[in-house]
Amino acid sequence: MDFKKFLRGPIPWIVLALVIVAVAFSFFMTPQFRPVQTDVGMQMIEDGRVEQARIVDGEQRVDLILTEPDAEFGKQVQFYYVEPRGEELVDAITAADPAEGFIDEVPQSNWLLSLMGILLPVLLLAALFYFFMTRLSGGNRGVMQFGKSKAQLITKDMPQVKFSDVAGADEAVEELGEIKEFLQDPSKFQAVGARIPKGVLLYGPPGTGKTLLARAVAGEAGVPFYSISGSDFVEMFVGVGASRVRDLFEQAKQNAPAIIFVDEIDAVGRHRGAGLGGGHDEREQTLNQLLVEMDGFDVKTNVILIAATNRPDILDPALLRPGRFDRQIGVDAPDMKGRQTILTVHAKGKPMAEGVDLEVLARKTPGFTGADLANVLNEAALLTARTNATQITDEALDEAVDRVMAGPQRRTRVMNDKERLITAYHEGGHALAAAAMRHSDPVTKVTILPRGRALGYTMVLPVNDKYSVTRNELLDQLTYAMGGRVAEEIVFHDPTTGAGNDIEKATGIARKMVTEYGMTAAIGAVKLGAAQGEAFFGRDMGGGRDYSDTLSEAVDREVRALIEQAHTEAWQVLNTNRDVLDRLAGELLEKETLDHVRLAAIFAEVEKLPERPQWLSHPDRPVSDRPPIELPVSQHVDEVVEPDVETEPAS
Ligand code: ADP
Ligand code: MG
Ligand code: ZN
């Protein structure tokens, strides 16, 4: 690094200039001798016209300085001789006895000059190399700069974001308020001996505003905000990650009070000893350095580290120990009220048409994160601008919701009649299955317009936010998922690949019911398998299974049984209501999209499937003699029911 500094200073350039001057000087100062014929030169010596003679033996050359300038050649001449005449020449000069004498010289190569001859090209090359290096690293990370955190990796800014820009995350804001106060006035806390957390971990799904919150703390406290992403640490040069961490902390400490924000900390903070290779890999060194730096904070270090992750479960426990990220704040997808306030925040500066109600929009968007909602309003504004309208209408907002959920509508893609017919029945099958189930959320929309990667989709949304799901609701979801495939089977006797995504989703739900939710009698209320996602790069290489082959077979059997049951139920529903299905498909082909009002009319006469018998968690348990307490309709899921989006049939 020091060498680099040295190169950048003025010294190398001064040296280079001196060298050039010296070389030029010695070149021009060499007296100019005019070459003459050997005979002519010899004659000059014999005629006694020579003041000084110098024999350069190595080059067999004689330099003469004449007493009087020669009319033709001037005062200085030189000539070459061949060896046999060397002696003759010496005799002649001795005889002539020039006034200034006779110098016999065996040439010593001029060491300074020859040194320059070697050094000069080297210096030039070095200068050239350096020039290119700096040019190259200007835009990207150059070889000379690795290890040094550069502006593009660590960004420092002074955010203007305020807590009021973060909506629907009141608990997180409250927790972070204390951090802000500490940064503003640490003495208040130090006076009472309070230990402020060195690190705050924000965890939650992507798009819930973690980055926004961290920036808001800096914005509120008016301190610089240093941010880097965990994946930036993981670099191709070994040892770079660790030195980046060192650098980051150094910079922040110099500018304290400050906030350091490490996004995606799971990229470096994974459980140590996990993954391939084991031992001291790059990531581990980076993590260790991070821990060292955090421990190096003393009470007076007015720097707070905020990190964000959506995988808190895979973080190294060392990171979560007291004195490190001991303050952990969950940031979740907002509830309905939260969504409404987020929409209000982002609707600022966007003119809404009369009658647009953000509360209604919030109701329509369960499971949407802050980022999704910001996106919805932006998409709506874009659509509005595209049509040269000046106000954002409900239609624009609805289209924007669809876009955010399933991608933009694809008008360019023309489905052939066969595909349209199949899609109409497939989506009709889903919608009808949902309509005939007693615990399913209402169908709000069905469309056969291709959107994103889906050929069509059916939107089944809860009326309110749900935080838990009942077994019957899950079974209904399975039946709903099977509805599309079963319609194809019943109507065309020939299923398509279009149900692939449905099958995948259904299998996922069924497997969780068996291994996580304890919803089958055969397996019972046991949790099977390590935490999800931990499988390969996680703690153990053995995959996510911590149970025997026999049990594994039983699990597979139960999963299959659940799917089969759902398949049967869907079959039953669609067969009993085949007329409704035909009508629904017909209307879909004609209108392409049906909203909840139209759907309610079509489904008016649907025969609902009978209630399932009481589920017994063990066959020996007696059926209770009292009826269940009726649950109020629509309020409950940890998985928000996703709209059905299926992938295209493989081409
Ligand atoms: P995360 O870091 O959790 O993935 P971000 O903070 O990057 O999410 O959120 C992306 C964008 O979504 C923000 O810039 C903001 O526009 C919007 N957003 C997310 N959550 C909220 C919120 N609670 N209030 C207002 N806007 C939000
Ligand atoms: Mg983020
Ligand atoms: Zn489907």
CATH architecture of the largest domain: Up-down Bundle
Unreliable residue stretches = 137-152, 531-543, 635-651
Overall 3D shape = elongated
Main sheet: which strands, in order across? 6-8-9-10-7-11
Beta-strand residue percentage = 5-15%
SSE class: alpha/beta
CATH homologous superfamily designation of the largest domain = Peptidase M41
Number of helices: 22
Q: What composes the largest sheet?
A: 6 strands, mixed
**Ligand inventory:** adenosine-5'-diphosphate, magnesium ion, zinc ion
How far apart lie the N and C ends?
A: 57 Å
Main CATH class of the largest domain: Mainly Alpha
By DSSP, the count of extended strands is: 15
CATH-derived topology of the largest domain: Methane Monooxygenase Hydroxylase, Chain G, domain 1
Helical content stands at 40-55%
**In total, how many domains does the architecture comprise?**
5
- The radius of gyration over CA amounts to 42 Å
Biased composition (Acidic residues): 640-651
Function: Acts as a processive, ATP-dependent zinc metallopeptidase for both cytoplasmic and membrane proteins. Plays a role in the quality control of integral membrane proteins.
GO molecular function, one term: ATP hydrolysis activity
Active site: 427
